[in-house]
Amino acid sequence: MQHCSIVLVARSDVAHGNVLSARVRWTGSFAKMSRSLSKIVMEHRIAEPASPLTEHAPTANWRDLREWIVLIEQKGALKRISKPVDAEEELAAVTYMATRNERSPALLFDTIVGDRSGSSVLTNMLGASKERYALAVGLDPHLSIAEMIAKTRGIMNRRIAPMRVAKGEAPVNEIVLRGADIDLSRFPSPRFWPGDGGRYIGTGDVTLTVSPDTGRINVGCYRQMLHGPRRVGLYCSPGKHGLLDCEAWWKKGKPCEVVVAYGIDPVLFMLGAQAFGVKESEIDVAGGMMGRGIELTDAETVSLPIPARAELVIEGTMREGDVLAEGPLGEFTGYYGRERSRQPVIDVTALHMQNAPILTAALMAKYPSCEIGAYYAIMRSARILDDLERIGVPGVISAYAHPAAASGWGIVVVSLQQQYPGHASQVLSLTAQCPAAAYYTKWIIAVDDDVDPTDMNEVMWALSTRCHPAEDIDIIRRTWSTGLDPSQFEMERRPYGSKALIDACKPHRYLKQFPQPTLLRRDVYERVATRWAELGFSEPPPRLTSFYKE
Ligand SMILES: Cc1cc2nc3c(=O)[nH]c(=O)nc-3n(C[C@H](O)[C@H](O)[C@H](O)COP(=O)(O)O)c2cc1C
Ligand SMILES: [Mn+2]
Questions:
Q1: Model confidence pLDDT, tens digit, residues 177-223
Q2: 371 CB less than 6 Å from ligand 1?
Q3: Ligand 1 pocket, 350 CB below 6 A?
Q4: Is 396 within 8 Å of 414 (Cβ atoms)?
Q5: What pLDDT, on the 0 to 100 scale, is given for residue 32?
Q6: Is the pLDDT of residue 54 over 80?
Q7: Is the CB of 236 inside a 6 Å radius of any atom of ligand 1?
Q8: 223 lines ligand 1 (CB under 6 A)
Q9: What pLDDT is attached to residue 545?
Q10: Does any ligand 1 atom lie closer than 6 A to the CB of residue 375?
Q11: Residue 51 in this model has a pLDDT that exceeds 50
Q12: What is the Cα–Cα distance from 264 to 354, expressed in whole angstroms?
């Protein structure tokens, strides 16, 4: 017996007629979820939403990966490759070579050598493309990166609870298999790099687990290596929520249930790769980013829900001590990650798929070939700005974690309007250690408000003309880092990083004397801009915001 009631709570901005926040409270329980677990899930769901939207709410105008693919194809942002391509290194090679160009479209491989499942494989789904990120979350793809960061702060703070779809109506249930009928070796599983330790059925995936203590469902993107027809290795680094959930179940002497989607829409994929607090529902955040609740349906053999519009989903369990050798895999740093080691294995108990499923594979490589590219830089930058606002430091204008710096992990540029002595130094320290930026980041650069952090040409200009290295660089030691950073030896030292705080603002003490940069006179700029087309230029005139001061 299942029941479902939906309560819609909406708050509106009376003055402008905009919906500020909408929250769907879903009180239905999944078929096999225990009473107590659902109770905790429900309690968790009625927590107060985060800060409301204060602007027109963007909404994604697609419902699943297939509809999103149609949308990007209409915009010329998809390339179909119909000739046969081998999942053994060749698919990654084509992806890597195509994406050496920042403007590469997403690549849909229709014919995979040896495939026995009718699958196709999508790579470079989002990659270095801010436009495809925008099309995923319902923003205008023509916005600048700085504008997208600002808008992302709005949509990432929305929370919309999931919607429940009956099993029979879930597209993912077109084909449902159990037990010995399942053979994952029929699907294309790429080996990306020559030194990879296996074939990875899961890279552009989402993995759902639930905490036995709180009932909170986690969504994480963790790589998954194929071991056998119904055996998949899962690598979760220490502290990741998927592993914490697993260990909590094992501590109770129980196996950990898991649901994984290997073909998934871009919003769930992006959310899987973001770290949120253990009290936050990443499913609600994903709904907030789409402007619509994520559609979920009941599983066959586990208590977790499954994404109703996914392409290919497995259910399974992980038992304590059931481990097999896994890795390495070429990483977002552009190097192989940790050494091969024994990692937990999922015993697959059920499989759901659409006919001719589209699998999502994520190449990890140097920018611009890495799947963790524009979207990640934008979302990380938005979260850094949220953190700084929460702390309450004044004068911060913008921030950017450039994706070429190891997928947005290496460098953060923050801009501020200097208001008092020590202001730039304060902003540098707070940015360096705020939760969203603390992990990995090595270089934190502060620039004045006339420098756009998303424009590296301007940042290099500031570094070269406003920064005096002997006076303007401080180092923080023993900071939060990762074993994936190859710059330090021995291996055990790698998790302890260091950070350089670089003040590339005009020196505050000499603000008044500091030379004026060469800028256009505003009225001359405006005159030329109106004549731009008449002068024979086909592109619009550049937007300038700083002008000569008399
Ligand atoms: C394509 C891709 C692959 C990833 N692979 C792994 C992985 O194998 N193991 C891991 O611990 N994190 C991996 N991550 C990073 C996690 O997804 C990220 O840390 C996320 O916050 C994890 O979710 P959690 O915070 O709920 O644990 C990957 C991210 C992406 C985008
Ligand atoms: Mn999480």
A1: 999 999 999 999 999 999 999 999 999 999 999 999 999 999 999 99
A2: yes
A3: no
A4: yes
A5: 37
A6: no
A7: yes
A8: yes
A9: 87
A10: no
A11: no
A12: 12
Measuring from atom 25 of ligand 1, which residue has the nearest CA? 275
Nearest to 542 by CA among 464, 463, 458, 460: 458
pLDDT at position 53: 43
Instruction: Of 515, 513, 510, give the one whose Cα is nearest residue 472.
Output: 510
In 424-528 the beta strands, taken as DSSP E runs, fall at 443-448, 473-480, 496-503
Per the rule left: phi > 0, alpha: psi between -120 and 50, beta: everything else, 342 is: beta
Identify any residues that bridge with 164 across adjacent strands, giving them in sequence order. Answer: 296
Q: Which residue puts its alpha carbon closest to atom 21 of ligand 1?
A: 275
Instruction: Centre a 10 Å sphere on the Cβ of residue 368 and count the other Cβ atoms it contains.
Output: 19
CA angle 519, 521, 527 (to 5 degrees): 125
DSSP code string of 238-251: TT-HHHHHHHHHHH
Q: Which of 219, 240, 269, 282 to mutate to test the pocket of ligand 1 (most atoms within 8 A of CB)?
A: 240
DSSP string, 38-64: HHHHHHHHTSPPSSPP-SPPP--S--S
Q: Is the CB of 216 under 6 A from ligand 1?
A: no
Peptide bond into 469 cis (omega under 30): no
Q: pLDDT at position 491, please?
A: 85
The SS3 call for residue 101 is: coil
Contact in structure between 128 and 99 (CB atoms under 8 Å): yes
Range in 49-58, 227-236, 411-420 the model is least confident about: 49-58
Q: Mean pLDDT, to the nearest integer, of 226-248?
A: 97
**pLDDT tens-digit profile of 393-405?**
999 999 999 999 9
Q: Whose CA is nearest to atom 4 of ligand 1?
A: 222
Cα–chain center distance at 500: 25
Q: Which pair of tokens denotes residue 436?
A: 């969203």
Give me the pLDDT at residue 56, please: 58
The two tokens of residue 444 are 């934190």
Residue with CA closest to ligand 1 atom 7: 222
Residue nearest to atom 16 of ligand 1 (CA): 273
How does residue 161 score in pLDDT terms, banded at 50, 70 and 90? very high
128-154: pLDDT as tens digits: 999 999 999 999 999 999 999 999 999
Q: Give the position, in ligand 1's atom list, of the atom nearest the Cα of 372.
A: 31
189 CA from centroid of ligand 2 (Å): 25
